[in-house]
């Protein structure tokens, strides 16, 4: 296998649409998230096109992906795509590898990283050959903008009284023609917007305060927008996942933000060819997930408002909804603590 030694090599190995366009200079942030970490190693392997040398069992006491330690019952497996030692849970997918791998037409075990990369390469080829229809991003963007304006303009009067969940003020309201309530959480984070955004927009660090959510970038659309998928784990009930288009916007695009100095990160559910609904997963419907960040006290602090109107789908008893609510405020408080601690260190 060719060793990855320069950014140029990496770029050449990866489908061009994922790095072309205005996001090219964003290699350190969201585009880079997908490019360097998850794709580079596997893409090199796949495009280099030969069967990798397997990592010796003796070299690995823990799964290369989740870092859980192997035992007699928690067993080692090899990814046929990259040759790394991984656990069963981190290599659930089976794919037909390129001919040069010499596995023939039978499906082979691959790790999650290789799977994501292979599917992305297939998507890219499909786009180039006109076999795959990409999401209608201009229409999605228009819809998102419409919803952001409408949710930011909701009158104060419909919101229920604010309950204080350890510093996070939570209130709910019903939305016409929707069976689920809209939840608004507000809190003060003792850090400037820039710091908050740095942490908040990097979903990889979310695990620091919320072990129940994992996410990845599906497609970088442009410098400020991308499609992501997130998996949420709950006690008792089935896992939920969502596939959403998310964008960072300020008052230059959002009418309702005119009187605000802040910015908003908003997301709505989309269908994406790279996000099929997987077995054992329930796809939730995100009408809106909106975070409004506003500077207070001359910009040294940030007022953080989260508005979430999302249908978790499936029949859920009230105690689950309540658990969801408290988890939402736990999530915000955890994030604030993380950011404030980071600022002090
Ligand atoms: Zn693992
Ligand atoms: Zn692999």
TrEMBL record:
Domain START: 158-328
Zinc-finger recorded as keyword: yes
Highest taxon of source: Eukaryota
Gene3D superfamilies assigned: 3.30.530.20, Zinc/RING finger domain, C3HC4 (zinc finger)
Annotated FYVE-type domain residues: 57-119
InterPro entries reported in the protein's UniProt record: FYVE-type_Zinc_Finger, START-like_dom_sf, START_lipid-bd_dom, Znf_FYVE, Znf_FYVE-rel, Znf_FYVE_PHD, Znf_RING/FYVE/PHD
CDD domains: START (cd00177)
Name assigned to this protein: FYVE-type domain-containing protein
């Amino acid at each position: 296998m060719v060793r990855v030694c320069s950014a140029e090599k990496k770029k050449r190995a990866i489908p061009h649409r994922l790095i072309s366009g205005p996001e090219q200079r964003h290699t350190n942030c969201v585009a880079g998230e997908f490019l360097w970490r998850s794709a580079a190693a596997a893409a090199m392997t796949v495009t280099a096109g030969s069967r990798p040398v397997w990592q010796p069992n003796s070299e690995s006491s823990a799964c290369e992906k989740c870092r859980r330690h192997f035992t007699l019952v928690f067993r080692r497996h090899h990814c046929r795509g990259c040759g790394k030692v991984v656990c069963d849970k981190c290599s659930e997918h089976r794919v037909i590898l390129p001919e040069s791998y010499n596995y023939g037409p039978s499906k082979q075990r691959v790790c999650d990283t290789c799977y994501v990369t292979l599917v992305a390469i297939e998507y890219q080829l499909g786009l180039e050959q006109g076999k795959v229809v990409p999401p209608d991003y201009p229409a999605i963007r228009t819809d998102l903008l419409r919803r952001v304006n409408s949710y930011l303009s909701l009158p104060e009067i419909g919101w229920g009284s604010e309950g204080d969940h350890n510093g996070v003020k939570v209130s709910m309201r019903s939305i016409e023609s929707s069976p689920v309530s809209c939840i608004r959480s507000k809190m003060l984070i003792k850090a400037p917007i820039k710091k908050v955004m740095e942490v908040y927009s990097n979903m990889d660090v979310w695990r620091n305060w919320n072990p129940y959510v994992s996410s990845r970038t599906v497609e970088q659309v442009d410098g400020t927008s991308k499609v992501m998928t997130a998996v949420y784990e709950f006690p008792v009930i089935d896992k939920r996942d969502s596939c959403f288009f998310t964008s960072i916007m300020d008052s230059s695009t959002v009418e309702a933000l005119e009187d605000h100095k802040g910015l908003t990160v908003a997301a709505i559910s989309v269908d994406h060819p790279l996000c099929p609904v997987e077995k054992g997963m329930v796809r939730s419907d995100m009408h809106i997930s909106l975070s409004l960040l506003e500077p207070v006290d001359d910009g040294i602090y940030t007022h953080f408002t989260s508005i979430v109107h999302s249908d978790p789908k499936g029949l859920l008893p009230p105690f689950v909804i309540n658990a969801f609510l408290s988890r939402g405020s736990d999530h915000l408080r955890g994030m604030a603590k993380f950011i404030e601690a980071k600022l002090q260190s």
